[in-house]
Specification:
It is built from 14 helices and 13 strands. The longest helix is centred in the last third of the chain and has 33 residues. The termini are close together. With 366 residues, it is of the alpha/beta class.
Length: 366
């Protein structure tokens, strides 16, 4: 079978691709991967031996306005449509809603019921035509996966029986569950760490402002640095935030080292999409057994509170720092570890059910 996995960014920024790729036998199937090299730097693809790559190479900053990206999206659409039309794929995995929207016409006409749609971003759902196209993509898909159950509200009710939950669970991380517990490096400060693409300037300014005035904490940022990160670094310097540190871009495996220096995960976001999303750090928290702080009222925050693996708080509140400190000092670590294990078991069951669906789908279509 000839299979295409369609991505919308560099492969190393799509860890969720492994959820699909891990259950495709590359010796039995011909696997193609479309990805967008946005920074024009090469990446190590040796992990994906046996795959055929289609690189869309065009510079595009991520942390800029949506309007400024239109030209890039048009070029990606042209590249992707040419690939879909020139190759006769038996099955496609469409990763990200924007990927699907840009080629929705080809999917409907040529690949009806022969693709799985991965929905993981509700940023554009306020735009009615976009929402209409997403509904069409979902109806024409063999199945749809959502990365957060909170996203189900955006998808057609008549498709609910073929909508499933995926999780950004990196199986390699499970081999490193005890890195923090066994090799954690102690500190007299509570080290709060963010990792990933650094965005959401205003909420992070507030967090930096709060924590910079409190000697009980350190704040660490690990991740890609574009304009927002540059602005935050400048702000931290201007207010003499000597307990705030920026460490730059990292490789996924580097997490196993810096989690040893992390006491609490900064998992706070504040936009309409991220209030509903499930981020990678949520899973890192339960895998590595590190407590996390989430935005008050967010879906992740509600999950963290319900599972007793973290807390919800708002950096705008005057007691932000005191609430975090009190939470951390009062942690019953034995109970916390048990709660992380329970949450991981629940998520792993859903992850395994989704993986089985992928294997059965490819088997049925052969």
């Amino acid at each position: 079978m000839k299979i295409l996995i369609m991505g919308f960014t560099k492969i190393k920024y799509m860890p969720y691709m492994d959820f699909y790729l891990n259950d495709i036998n590359r010796t039995e199937h011909e696997v193609h991967i479309l990805y967008w090299n946005r920074d024009l730097h090469s990446e190590d693809l040796t992990k994906y031996q046996g795959c055929i790559f289609h690189e869309f190479k065009y510079y595009q900053e991520d942390d800029v306005s949506k309007v400024s990206k239109i030209n890039s999206f048009v070029k990606y659409r042209r590249f992707a449509k040419h690939l879909l039309r020139s190759e006769n794929y038996d099955f496609i995995f469409v990763l990200h809603s924007l990927t699907g929207v840009l080629v929705a016409d080809v999917l409907k006409r040529k690949y009806h019921n022969r693709y799985i749609f991965d929905y993981r971003d509700s940023t554009y759902e306020g735009f009615a035509p976009f929402k209409k196209v997403v509904a069409s993509i979902t109806r024409n898909a063999y199945a749809t996966f959502v990365s957060s159950d909170a996203f189900r509200c955006f998808l057609p009710e008549d498709c609910k029986d073929k909508i499933y939950t995926s999780h950004n669970l990196l199986l390699d991380s499970l081999e490193h569950r005890d890195e923090k517990r066994l090799h954690g490096i102690p500190s007299d400060k509570i080290r709060i760490a963010f990792w990933g693409f650094i965005r959401h300037e205003q909420i992070n300014r507030m967090i930096i402002k709060r924590l910079s005035c409190d000697e009980r904490f350190e704040l660490h940022y690990y991740g890609r640095e574009q304009q927002t990160a540059t602005n935050l670094k400048t702000y931290a310097h201007e207010i003499s935030a000597n307990n705030v540190f920026f460490h730059g871009e990292y490789n996924p495996e580097d997490r196993y080292e810096f989690i040893k220096h992390t006491d609490i995960i900064h998992n706070i976001y504040c936009d309409n999409n991220m209030m509903l999303a499930m981020g990678n750090k949520y899973y890192d928290g339960i895998i590595f057994r590190i407590p996390q702080i989430c935005m008050l009222g967010s879906f992740m925050g509600k999950c963290a509170s319900a599972g007793k693996i973290g807390i919800e708080c708002n950096p705008k509140d005057d007691d932000f720092c005191d609430k975090i400190y009190s939470f951390y000092q009062k942690l019953n670590w034995k109970a916390f570890y048990e709660n992380c294990d329970k949450e991981l078991q629940k998520i792993y069951r859903e992850y395994s059910d989704g993986a089985a669906l992928i294997r059965n789908t490819l088997s049925d279509i052969k």
